[in-house]
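By convention, the token line describes the chain's fold. To illustrate:
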Amino acid sequence: MESKRILSCLDSEDPLTFIADQVLMPVMEKIGTSWEEGIVSLAQVYISERICEEVVQEMFRPLTFTSDKKKHARLAIAAIEDWHSLGKQIIYSVLSASGYEVIDYGYGQTVTSIYERALRDEIEILLI
């Protein structure tokens, strides 16, 4: 069934959004539900998130042209006190593929560490 869903994305007007909405999100929701029900371990949840992150990076990599970066406000992105970075990675990839230069502060950061780094880097827009 999933293979039919994946193949149908080729006919979609926006295959990247289709894959994210119709494939990755339902899979991650199913894994989360399985963890809540005790069917899968936390380690399996973590590995599945890492795999999804790699899929997202590979999906957007062909769209990223570093030499075409536009002049925009200084942007940074981070996840505060959170180790699940799939959502952050999707936003980072979309912005980067759209020509924005975004500094990735990573995940699991504290408010204080991000604040200090954003001041030092003269960040104008901070995405959390």
